[in-house]
Automatic annotation (TrEMBL):
Residues 413-674 form the Reverse transcriptase domain. CDD domains: RT_nLTR_like (cd01650). It comes from the Eukaryota. Pfam families: RVT_1. This is Reverse transcriptase domain-containing protein.
Length: 890
């Protein structure tokens, strides 16, 4: 029974009398009913309003007598809905107290919904007793609430809301001059290179000849021509599909004119053929695009964004508010102003008064590069192309026989003379909006993304290999510097940091974590100071001369809308986007960690991300004087090193009791009073005062479900291997990032991660919500989340024990050595910390130094005896897989 002008969609209660749920829809609205899932203790009815891309609505009723476990079944269903429908509304009477002081059930429901990408919009009471029982959750839409109204026929209030949809993005572009990709044939390019004369003998002549010959070759096979991108042209829409579409419209006109059965049949048959051709074209294009970027995550993310028509970076070529000259001047002047302010308040730097030479091993010359080395450097890294390059880099890589000799001559002459070619010292910068939500009119909201010539990067690889080997052999870098070093990473740094903090909290103490913020750190590196610090680690002779040449007389231009700005000189900094820059920056920052540790504080660095931490006994009301003196010394060192410290953006976390964040008194930093924060984000991981990881889990699962919804849109057009590539790159990688920090988390948190993995598994296999998840995971050979965490810890342990990981993790592990000669002496077991060392009361064995030995010793003796990483990973996963799914699994 529906009012005039409305339709009713209802689901009756399956047991008992009365009850059920119903939706009233205006008759002029196009909708499709959705099959209602069977969720114990939950009544629901759903519809799709318009197409699948429009809006899905689910009305839910949970009786007051329903047990708490019914919410888990509801969340599993919502996880499936969230994947299928990008715009989703879930509303109804949940019968939980989501009041101003919510119940634990309400907190868990709202938090879990947030991880699925759904926000809760109801605030204030919805029941006469003053409780909030009726909730509205939404994803991909804006819900604007109106005041609730009392009604005489119910003890619940009537809720009123307006739903707004975002406008569709605009497409299109200006004409551009470009080389047609279809004409860039490697075979023709090789032939064009063979017909050209050899270059001269000097380094300048060699580089100029290289550029001239490559440019002439590419002009011969694919000259530039003006191309105008068509508006709203789908990249998969081929000329054959365009012809089929014209034929389809012609058949439609014939049928509408004749109105006979034969023409209608011809039209409908051809429509089916056209739809199948469209789907096949999409599948072919999507698969080719994803396969081409399967080993390059950044490019894969970009392709997925473009395929799912997500809002990305605004096209500055189409909406040019600022000129390329304005951007170029802003980027250059920003660094100059920072440097001027620092130099104006700078005393004499003692480091420059007495330059020192290293008394240890030195690197004063480069070894000659062989043809095999040239091939290796040519194929290494990503084939990025700079606008200053004469031709696409992928074409050069496709012709190793033709370019091997001239490229080898350029590299060896550069390394032998200690000169980096001046023609390769210029970068092309593209402005990139930091966040799409920022004001595009404000130049400070853009970051410069630099692109360097391909030839210069190949020369850099030759230098980086020899310089990196020298630094590793001499242990010249700080052992706690994890940035851009083999076997090191953000996860190893955070594992060591949290291990120290968790053990301190477990002993009943507290800790302070300080995350320093530096302004444009790479751009502010002083070349004179870097020269002295290179000499300190043993860099001399031709090598030092080459690095001076590499850093001097550099410049950049901004590219925008097919135009290039004038050249702006760079007086300081290491080149953005250069292969050598992270290595040089690590050398430059080397003294800082030594300074911090001299005050008894810990210090971990990842490039310019610096984390200081102080472990304290008990729970003092204020930080000790040691911290004050250390921060003063750090600020002074950064000032003397001509680096700009941002005290207002420096974050502090006071770990211990929950009230420590508001109660503790901290010193000032560079004149700015430090204030403890309830949580901080370090290297992509969110930490709170108790290291509960709850905020991190919520953020990770929310982002993972967002990307699962993208994958759901692509799923009909992808083969299963390609869909697996997308899921692993965008979802599984998030679950696995730093998951070694999730050791010992409560079940309610790991369930959120498991829910993401379950949804990903169901999407990949096409399983329904009614299918039990264990057989699905078994079929995919995926370890459940709990065992993935254990697997990561064990792999880190293996790397640390056998020299494949950082020394700061190896120092936390000890081989078990019994006092007597026992059969277990050679069993490759580790010493588990005793209760006096780690009480493990509050952390529930979550410290790496306690969990790693325990799990390592639980492995079979055969697995522990392995020395090859690949073999160990395979055997370790097999053991954990059998534990997860039974001894018969393999």
């Amino acid at each position: 029974m529906a009012p005039p002008g409305f339709s009713v969609l209802h689901q009756s209660r399956t047991v008992g009398r009365g009850g059920g749920v119903a939706l009233l829809i205006r008759e002029d609205c196009s909708f499709r009913a959705l099959p209602s899932p069977s969720i114990p203790g939950i009544e629901c009815v759903g519809l799709v309003w318009g197409s699948e891309e429009s809006l899905a609505v689910w009305l839910v009723y949970r009786p007051p007598s329903a047990p708490a476990a019914t919410l888990s079944g509801l969340l599993e269903a919502v996880a499936g809905w969230a994947l299928e429908f990008p715009n989703l509304l879930v509303l109804g009477d949940f019968n939980i107290h989501a009041d101003a002081t919510p119940s634990s059930q309400a907190l868990d429901l709202v938090s879990s919904m947030a991880t699925l990408g759904l926000s809760q919009f109801v605030s204030g009471p919805t029941h006469q007793a003053g409780h909030t029982l009726d909730l509205i959750f939404g994803a991909g839409i804006d819900v604007i609430m109106s005041p609730s109204m009392k009604v005489p026929w119910s003890d619940h209030y009537a809720l009123k809301a307006r739903i707004d949809f975002p406008p569709p993005p605009c497409l299109g572009g200006e004409p551009i001059w470009a080389r047609p990709q279809r004409l860039m044939d490697p075979d023709r390019f090789r032939q064009a290179l063979r017909d050209l004369a050899p270059p001269g003998d000097s380094l300048t002549e060699l580089v100029e000849g290289w550029n001239t010959q490559l440019l002439a070759a590419i002009d011969e096979i694919a000259p530039k021509r003006p191309l105008r991108p068509r508006r709203n042209r789908a990249p998969w829409f081929t000329e054959e599909l365009r012809k089929m579409k014209r034929d389809l419209r012609r058949l439609e006109r014939v049928w509408r004119g004749a109105r006979d059965g034969a023409s209608r049949t011809s039209y409908r048959v051809f429509m089916k053929t056209y739809e199948m051709a469209v789907k096949a074209a999409k599948k072919s294009y999507f698969s080719a695009s994803i396969a081409s970027a399967s080993s390059r995550p950044a490019q894969l993310f970009s392709i997925i964004r473009s395929l799912t028509s997500l809002e990305g970076q605004p096209n500055l070529n189409n909406n040019r508010t600022h000129s390329c000259e304005a951007f170029a001047s802003f980027f250059a002047e920003k660094v100059l102003l920072l440097r001027h302010d620092l130099l104006a308040n700078l005393d004499t730097i003692k480091e420059l008064e007495a330059p020192r030479l290293s008394s240890g091993p030195v690197l004063d010359h480069f070894d000659r590069i062989s043809p095999a080395d040239v091939d290796r450097f040519l194929q290494a890294g990503k084939p990025t192309t700079c606008p200053l390059d004469p031709c696409p880099s992928w074409l050069i890589r496709a012709c190793p026989d033709e370019v091997r000799a001239p490229l080898g001559d350029i590299i060896n002459l550069s390394l032998g003379t200690g000169i980096f070619p001046g023609e390769l010292k210029e970068a092309v910068v593209r402005p990139l909006l930091k966040k799409t939500s920022l004001d595009p009119l404000d130049l400070s909201n853009y970051r410069p993304v630099s692109n360097l010539p391909f030839l210069g990067k190949v020369i850099e690889r030759a230098v980086a290999e020899q310089l990196g080997r020298f630094l590793d052999e001499t242990s010249a870098l700080d052992p706690f510097q994890s940035g851009f070093r083999a076997g090191h990473g953000t996860e190893t740094a955070l594992v060591a940091l949290t291990d120290d903090l968790r053990r301190q909290l477990d002993r009943g103490g507290s800790g302070l974590l300080i995350l320093l913020d530096l302004s444009a750190a790479f751009d502010m590196v002083d070349h004179e100071l870097l020269d002295h610090r290179l000499a300190d680690v043993g860099i001399q002779g031709t090598v030092l001369q080459w690095l001076r040449s590499f850093l001097s007389d550099r410049g950049q231009r901004v590219a925008l809308g097919g135009e290039l700005s004038s050249r702006h000189s760079l007086v300081c900094g290491v080149p953005q986007g250069a292969i050598l820059s992270p290595m040089l920056f690590n050398i430059f920052m080397r003294p800082l960690a030594q300074l911090v540790r001299s005050f008894g504080l810990g210090c971990h660095q990842y490039a310019d991300d610096t984390q200081l931490y102080l472990l304290m006994d008990g729970h003092p009301n204020s930080a000790p004087d040691t911290l004050t003196r250390c921060l003063e010394a750090v600020a002074g060192w950064l000032r003397g090193s001509r680096l700009k410290l941002n005290p207002s953006k420096t974050e502090v976390l006071w770990l211990g009791r929950d009230d420590m964040g508001s109660r503790g008194q901290l010193p000032s930093l560079a004149g700015v009073q430090l204030v403890p924060a309830p949580s901080v984000k370090s290297l992509g991981v969110i930490f709170d005062t108790s290291l509960s990881m709850e905020a991190q889990i919520t953020a990770i699962t929310k982002a993972a479900f967002f990307h699962l919804r993208q994958a759901k849109q692509l799923a009909p057009y992808l083969s299963r291997p390609d869909l697996a590539t997308v899921i692993h790159a965008t979802v599984t990688s998030r679950l696995d990032y730093c998951n070694s920090l999730y050791v010992g988390l409560p079940l309610r948190l790991t369930q959120k991660l498991q829910r993401v993995q379950n949804a990903a598994a169901r999407l990949l296999t096409g399983s329904s919500l009614r299918d039990h998840i264990h057989p699905v995971l078994y079929q995919l050979h995926w370890l459940p989340v709990e065992y993935r965490i254990r697997f990561k810890v064990l792999v880190l342990t293996f790397k640390a024990l056998y020299g494949l990981g950082p020394s700061y993790l190896r120092d936390r592990l000890s081989w078990y050595a019994p006092q007597r000669n026992l059969r277990s002496t050679n069993n490759n077991t580790l010493k588990v910390p005793g209760l006096r060392e780690v009480r493990l009361a509050s952390t529930r064995a979550r410290a790496f130094s306690a969990a790693a030995p325990t799990w390592w010793n639980a492995l079979s003796q055969e697995t522990r005896a392995l020395r090859d990483l690949t073999s160990f990973r395979r055997a370790c996963k097999t053991e954990l897989f059998r534990q997860a799914f039974g001894q018969g699994a393999a």
